[in-house]
Write a structure and sequence with these properties.
There is one protein chain. The termini are far apart. It is elongated, with a radius of gyration of 41 Å. A hairpin with a 3-residue loop joins β12 and β13. It is built from 20 helices and 15 strands. It has 5 domains: 51 residues; 59 residues; 169 residues, Nucleotidyltransferase, domain 5; 62 residues, no CATH class; 83 residues, no CATH class. The longest helix has 18 residues. The chain has 507 residues and is of the alpha/beta class. Strands 1, 2, 3, 4, 7 and 8 form a 6-stranded mixed β-sheet that branches.
């Protein structure tokens, strides 16, 4: 536009010739002549028309254009990180099609053809309460002084843009299911539909089109919360663009600098507070409402939460070995010794392992993420210890930090004083915890230890004393007294009736 103005000005106002104008502006006479023939200033459209005139491609290039176009179309269906570069296209053309043109020319051709193939995105406006989107992300934190890679469970409501983020140590099925339990509780209800990638924890097999064979546990989750899962096309993560952006946004804004935390619970509290703060501060695009305000409206459209929580666990069949242990992810967990040799079910949660047999819970353990560790509970072995009391000395469960030190001190003294009989009597003491609980038994042992008499009978007396103190009767206030007792009155004795029975004698 500026050049057109200068040429017209020099010609019409200053009266210079085409030669003089070309010399003064440092351009060719043909360019000056071309602009002087135009009556209107060249718009962008005009310039494109002018520049497109002439021979665009050589015959050699035209020969390979259909091949280039086909390769680029095929790339459009593949993973974006593994597609043709212009250099690779040139190499293939030379090797496979005996192309004689230059690489620089092919680079220009590929750039133009890619622009034509670029996908067009349509602005979307989601209905309140209709959809949420989900994705996993990764981040680093400082956990107990060490850098640790964690996995971020990210959900976002498509309409109000509310984010929910929770951290896990892995992306396994139990973490995947657990995230939705906490996510729906955070949102305050359940949207109608969820949009997912084709991740293995949800999809067992990809069928034709958008049909999927879904994992049974994922179908159970949908049935419990009454939502429907929709899946993106293969390698088309952009279809859930809301949450795709959330992953990076959370990593940059909630986890920079790296948070230093003593536990994942502490980190998840930080992430929850951050999500709520973002909801208060951010506006929903193209509206005057905050995310929090729109979220309040959206909650009215959710399905209500079910009365019971979904059991977010992986169910695994296990065999109890001869040491009354089952194996879960290389770690061993104890069960009552009466189940040795039987098949049981292990419910593997994110934070605990629950063992079930005949529809009854027989053992609970905190879940460990270490490898090749053993976790035992002393109570599981008491029946076996009655028959083998000497084994108490070296039993793995008896050495646990969960057992108060007074138990080990008391056992040593009983064994010193009574030998094998001391072992047997100590096992009888341990069995008492099933009746009175570990707290009272520990208290009784501590009291007995003060007397320096390490006998079953002494401990039992202290247990009786503790039990009696706990069951002392207390007077009832008027408010606590049942109404029928307040109304109950005792009549005074009639002495005359007594005289009649005794013949008039009172003594």
């Amino acid at each position: 536009m500026a050049q057109f103005h200068n040429i017209k000005f020099l010609k019409e106002v200053e009266g210079l010739s085409q030669r003089q104008i070309a010399k003064k502006l440092g351009i060719s006479r043909n360019t000056v002549s071309k602009y002087l023939k135009q009556n209107e200033a060249p718009t962008t459209m005009n310039r494109q028309i002018i520049y497109s005139k002439g021979k665009e491609y050589s015959d050699e290039t035209k020969r390979v254009l259909p091949i280039i176009d086909q390769w680029l179309k095929d790339d459009h269906k593949r993973w974006g990180k593994q597609t043709h570069t212009a250099a690779r296209i040139y190499q293939r053309l030379v090797n496979e099609y005996n192309f004689k043109g230059s690489e620089s020319n092919i680079r220009k051709v590929v750039a133009k053809r890619k622009k034509k193939l670029k996908e067009v995105f349509i602005p979307l406006d989601f209905q309140l309460g209709h959809q949420f989107q989900f994705d996993w992300g990764e981040a680093d934190i400082t956990l107990l002084g060490r850098t640790k890679r964690i996995y971020l469970f990210c959900m976002q409501l498509s309409a109000s843009r509310v984010r929910f983020v929770r951290a896990y140590l892995h992306e396994k099925q139990e973490a995947f299911l657990d995230g939705f339990v906490h996510g729906f509780e955070f949102f305050g209800g359940v949207p109608t539909e969820g949009l997912f990638d084709n991740l293995k924890t949800a999809v067992e097999k990809i069928l034709k089109g958008r049909d999927r064979l879904e994992q049974e546990s994922f179908l159970a989750l949908q049935t419990h919360y009454l939502f429907k899962a929709e899946f993106c096309n293969t390698r088309a993560g952009n279809e859930k663009g809301r949450v795709e952006g959330t992953v990076g946004y959370v990593r940059r804004n909630a986890l920079v600098p790296l948070p230093e935390v003593p536990s994942l619970d502490e980190l998840n509290k930080h992430l929850l507070d951050w999500c709520l703060k973002e909801a208060r501060q951010k506006n929903v695009p193209y509206t005057k409402e905050t995310v929090e305000q729109m979220w309040a409206k959206e909650r009215e459209y959710f399905h209500p939460l079910p009365e019971k929580r979904f059991e977010a666990c992986k169910l695994v069949s296990c065999q109890v070995n001869k040491t009354s242990l089952i194996t879960v992810d290389t770690n061993k967990y104890s069960v009552p010794c009466s189940y040795v040799g039987q098949a049981v079910w292990a419910k593997i949660f994110v934070d605990q392992v629950i063992v079930v047999a005949q529809n009854q819970v027989i053992a609970k353990h905190p879940r460990s993420y270490e490898r090749y560790q053993m976790f035992t509970i002393l109570d599981h072995y008491l029946e076996a210890l009655i028959k083998k009391p000497r084994a108490i000395r070296d039993a793995h469960a008896f050495q646990s930090s969960d057992i108060p030190e007074v138990f080990r001190r008391f056992h040593r003294k009983m064994r010193e004083q009574e030998g094998a009989i001391g072992d047997q009597k100590f096992i009888r003491l341990l069995l008492l915890h099933r009746e009175i609980g570990m707290e009272k038994l520990t208290q009784a042992l501590l009291e007995a230890e003060k007397t320096q008499i390490y006998r079953y009978e002494v401990v039992h007396k202290f247990i009786e004393r503790i039990e009696n103190n706990d069951t002392k009767t207390q007077g009832l206030t008027v408010e606590q007294t049942p109404t029928n007792l307040l109304d109950y009155k005792i009549k005074k004795s009639n002495v005359d009736q007594y005289r009649q029975l005794t013949g008039g004698q009172l003594d």
